[in-house]
Write a structure and sequence with these properties.
Elements lengths: L4 H8 L11 E12 L2 E4 L7 E3 L4 E6 L2 E4 L4 E6 L3 E5 L4 E10 L2 E17 L5 E7 L4 E3 L3 E8 L3 E8 L1 E6 L2 E6 L2 E5 L7 E2 L16 E5 L8 E5 L8 E6 L3 E4 L1 E3 L5 E5 L2 E5 L4 E4 L6 E2 L9 E2 L3 H11 L9 E2 L2
Parallel strand pairs: 9-10, 22-26, 27-28
Antiparallel strand pairs: 1-4, 1-6, 2-3, 2-5, 5-8, 6-7, 7-9, 8-9, 9-12, 10-11, 11-14, 12-13, 13-16, 14-15, 16-17, 18-21, 18-25, 19-20, 22-23, 23-24
Length: 320
């Protein structure tokens, strides 16, 4: 664990970094900015304060974090849990109570992505993560969350188990599975890294297709970030592979499929549809890769179980 009690003591008295220390008591966590583009808003204030890379500060009840296109921040709750807030995200601590050696914690992922690691579940009386479309209860070990405001909320479990709650409905998720919630719960989906959040859109009634290149000598079909040959090639899918098809471009007829941690477009001549009825039309536009820049080694421990290695998912990771 990257933080120790001695460092926490120094942080409380503002000796490590010159940022406002008005976090409400009790002190819940320590934050560390791991990549530029992070803002902090203290409880009961309206001002977002930019924080530099390497800055460390206390994080308390009612405090919020907001990251830009590149920003990342690590929160450490004693030596018991960590949260990595990823780019284009907003994260808030709603409740924190510490009595003796036990903690009650409730956080909210407003939008974007976060990864939670609970290294010592015995230290928590309760641990809740609220999202727009569901709440996660009694999590253990390692899980990742994603919220697209007014669209859907996702969770993927890499280690341990999580209970997803929506109204009166509860679904138990074990390692290697995930679920997407909108107005209702989707199906539980089994995932193998580097398969990521896009695969939570796949259900038992999703169209399937066979990959089979019609170009002589070609053993695979390219997956591109946009619906045309001029777009970035994300990778290739081998002939004979069965894949899900989420829709067809409203111009040009290319097919959209989940691919690694994003979505990609396939040329129609390389795809043979199977049991597909009324494929939805999808705007013929480039997809977005929500990746990370220059991840540190301790961040990689959190990222790889959900996004694969740089070799497996080279478009997700970039280095400067």
């Amino acid at each position: 664990m990257r933080f120790r009690l001695g460092m926490l003591f120094l942080l409380v008295f503002g000796l490590l970094v010159q940022v406002p220390l008005m976090a409400q008591e009790p002190l819940a966590a320590v934050l560390e900015i791991t990549y530029a583009g992070v803002e902090l808003k203290r409880a009961n204030t309206d001002e977002w304060l930019p924080l530099p890379v390497g800055a460390q500060a206390p994080f308390g009840i009612g405090d919020s974090l907001r990251t830009g296109k590149t920003g990342r921040v690590l929160l450490s709750f004693d030596d018991a849990a960590q949260t990595l807030v990823m780019p284009l995200s907003e994260f808030q601590l709603q409740t924190f109570v510490k009595a003796a050696d036990k903690m009650d914690l409730k956080a909210k992922l407003v939008s974007g992505r976060s990864i939670q690691q609970i290294s010592d579940p015995s230290r928590f009386e309760s641990y809740l993560v609220e999202m727009q479309h569901m709440t996660l209860q009694a999590p253990t070990a390692l899980f990742a969350t994603q919220v697209f405001a007014d669209v859907s909320s996702d969770v993927i479990v890499a280690q341990g188990a999580v209970t997803a709650v929506k109204g009166d409905e509860q679904i138990e998720l074990n390692a290697g599975s995930g679920i997407r919630a909108g107005e209702t719960f989707g199906e539980v989906v089994n995932l193998t890294p580097p398969q990521g959040f896009p695969f939570l859109a796949v259900g038992s009634d999703t169209c399937r297709a066979l990959i089979q290149s019609t170009i002589p000598g070609e053993t695979s079909v390219s997956v591109r970030i946009g619906p045309g040959e001029g777009y970035l090639n994300l990778g290739n899918i081998l002939n004979g592979t069965i894949i899900p098809i989420l829709g067809v471009a409203d111009e040009g007829g290319r097919y959209l499929t989940p691919y690694l941690s994003t979505y990609g477009w396939l040329i129609p001549s390389g795809v043979t549809l199977q049991s597909c009825n009324n494929l939805p039309l999808i705007p013929a536009e480039a997809q977005i890769i929500y990746g990370v820049i220059n991840p540190a080694s301790f961040e990689m421990d959190l990222l790889v179980p959900f996004f694969g290695t740089p070799t497996e998912n080279s478009r997700f990771y970039s280095y400067e």
